[in-house]
Amino acid sequence: MSNEVETSATNGQPDQQAAPKAPSKKEKKKGPEKTDEYLLARFKGDGVKYKAKLIGIDDVPDARGDKMSQDSMMK
């Protein structure tokens, strides 16, 4: 039985440590900070055209970007 242990431990190659892992998806660099200027520039213009069903209209006091959209959809 000790021969089996020695054979598996010494197979002619030294034990190699695991290579460092690539950064996971959670550790990705984030995009630019979502400042008011960034959001105003992002949502200016005509946007893109696509076919959709209108499910409601919600008045918004000011441009708040993604958070505003999420709040409106959750009502």
Automatic annotation (TrEMBL):
Biased composition (Basic and acidic residues): 61-75
Pfam families according to UniProt: DAB2_SBM
Skewed-composition ranges (Polar residues): 1-16
Region (Disordered) location: 1-38, 54-75
PANTHER family, alphabetized: DISABLED HOMOLOG 2 (PTHR47695:SF5), PID DOMAIN-CONTAINING PROTEIN (PTHR47695)
Protein name in UniProt: DAB adaptor protein 2
Name of encoding gene: DAB2
